[in-house]
Amino acid sequence: MGHGADGRTTPAAHLDADAAATIAATLQALATPSRLMILTRLRQGPCPVGELADAVGMEQSAVSHQLRLLRALGLVTGSRRGRRIVYSLYDTHVAQLLDEAVYHIEHLRLGARDLPGTAEAEGPEGAADTGRAGAGTRPSGR
User: Fold this and answer.
1) What whole-number distance in Å separates Cα of residue 25 and Cα of residue 91?
2) What is the Cα–Cα distance from 142 to 95, expressed in whole angstroms?
3) Judging by beta carbons within 10 Å of its beta carbon (0-12, 13-18, 19+), is residue 75 exposed, middle or buried?
4) What is the pLDDT of residues 70-95, one digit of tens each?
5) Handedness of CA 114, 26, 39, 85 (dihedral sign)
6) Helix, strand, coil: what percent of the chain each, to 5?
7) How far apart are the first and last CA of the chain?
8) Within a 10 A sphere around the Cβ of 46, how many other Cβ atoms?
9) Which residues does residue 98 pair with via DSSP β-bridges, in sequence order?
10) Which tens digit of pLDDT belongs to each residue from 94-120?
């Protein structure tokens, strides 16, 4: 199956029930602020649970609970280093999911839209928006 972003082959337009349920479960996992904060911190690099708890302002037991769910959904992975487990994002697709959510919210805030098949973002009145810094663009390195 294709990856569907940045000009790559797009996935099939139709989802079967199993694929739809799996995607819905993944999106539900992303629907809580605490999990998003954990994933965003892991977007910066691997981290043990104690440091994660400090970084997101949660109790270690609560972070551990969220990590169990995120691991079960294939969004994070843990590797043992000595006596502790260091967590990281499962792969670059998880980072891309986070990035796309952030880009979408930023575009909503700016009133801009990336329309399929166009290279420019559309502003609030429907005209191409090339005058705003960042509208229709993404950071390099993606």
Assistant:
1) 18
2) 10
3) buried
4) 999 999 999 999 999 999 999 999 99
5) negative
6) 45, 15, 40
7) 20
8) 16
9) none
10) 999 999 999 999 999 998 887 777 655
Element (H, E) at 49: helix 49-56
Identify the sign of the CA torsion 125, 127, 131, 136.
Answer: positive
Structure pTM?
0.72
Tokens of 73: 């959904």
d(CA 115, CA 127): 11
Question: In the predicted model, what is the mean pLDDT of residues 58-74?
Answer: 96
42, 70 Cβ separation under 8 angstroms: no
Residues 138, 23, 95, CA angle at the centre, nearest 5°? Answer: 30
Is the pLDDT at 17 greater than 70? The verdict is yes
Question: Strand 84-89 and strand 76-81: pairing?
Answer: antiparallel
CA distance readout (Å), 110 to 27, 47, 106, 139: 24, 33, 6, 16
Cα separation, 57 vs 42, in Å, equals 14
Distance CA 14, CA 20 (A): 9
Contact (Cβ atoms closer than 8 angstroms) between residue 129 and residue 122: yes
